[in-house]
Structure formats: C-alpha cells, structure tokens
C-alpha cells in the first residue's frame, strides 16, 4: 500500500503551474528560484516543488527521464514478476514433495512385487 500523499493534487497542480509560469513568463526565473518563491507562498519545500516540476517536464517531453506512465507500468510489471516468482517457488516445492512421495510409493511397490 502506498504512503498517503502529504499534499493534495490541487496544491501540486497549482505549484507546478505557478513555477512554470515564472520560468516561462516575463520574469524568466530559473526553476530553483521559482520553486523557492512558490514554495514559500504555498508552504511547500523547494525540493518537493522542484521534484513535481521535473516530473511534469519529463511527462511533457521537455526533459529526459522516465515518464509517469512508464514508471507506473514498470512498477506494475515488477509486482507481477515478484508474484510469479513466489508462485514458481511454491510450485517447485510442491513438485519436489510429490515427486518424493511417488518415488517412495514406487519403491514400496517394487519391493513387494
């Protein structure tokens, strides 16, 4: 279960929109300065705001990195992979158990025969 979000989505969206407006607008502020300014107004740390802006830029293709959709897909595949590994381990153990039981039964039948 994922950790609860500290900030609501609306605050996140507003923060990113303000930072991008400051960076792309008339002021031409750098991202760190814009994040500091917006963070002070909204009560968000600069690094939190920078992380949000960075991820939005990645999602928009303006920055190199793994987009949110791909990151979610990878996370889902990793969970599925772990589940399949656990299932394989259970099946391997069960197979060994039943093979040993069949082997004992076969030996007993041969000795009686």
Number of helices: 4
- How big a fraction of the residues is strand? under 5%
Number of strands: 0
| Straight-line N-to-C gap | 58 Å
Can you tell me the overall shape? rod-shaped
Largest sheet: none
Provide the low-confidence segments as ranges.
none
The secondary structure category is mainly alpha
| Rg measurement, Å | 28 Å
User: What string gives the helices and strands in order?
Assistant: HHHH
The residue fraction in helices comes out at over 70%
Output mean pLDDT.
Answer: 89
Task: Report on the architecture of this protein.
The protein is mainly alpha-helical and 113 residues long. 78% of the residues lie in helices and 0% in strands. It contains four helices and no strands. The chain has helices spanning 9-24, 31-42, 46-60, 68-112. Helix 1 crosses helix 3 (46-60). It is rod-shaped. The protein starts with 8 loop residues before the first helix and ends with a helix. The model has no long low-confidence stretch (mean pLDDT 89).
Task: Give me a quick take on this structure.
This protein has helices spanning 9-24, 31-42, 46-60, 68-112. With 113 residues, the chain is mostly helical.
Features:
single chain, 113 residues, mainly alpha, 4 helices, 0% strand
Summarize the helices and strands and which ones pair or pack.
Blueprint lengths: L8 H16 L6 H12 L3 H15 L7 H45 L1
């Amino acid at each position: 279960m994922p950790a609860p979000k500290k900030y609501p989505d609306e605050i996140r969206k507003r923060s990113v929109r303000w930072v991008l407006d400051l960076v792309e607008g008339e002021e031409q502020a750098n991202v760190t300065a814009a994040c500091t300014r917006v963070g002070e107004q909204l009560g968000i740390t600069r690094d939190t705001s920078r992380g949000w802006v960075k991820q939005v830029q990645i999602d928009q293709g303006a920055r190199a990195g793994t987009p949110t959709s791909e990151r979610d897909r990878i996370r889902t595949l990793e969970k599925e992979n772990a589940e399949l590994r656990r299932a394989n381990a259970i099946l391997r153990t069960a197979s060994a158990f039943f093979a040993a039981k069949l082997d004992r039964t076969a030996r007993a039948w041969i000795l009686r025969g």
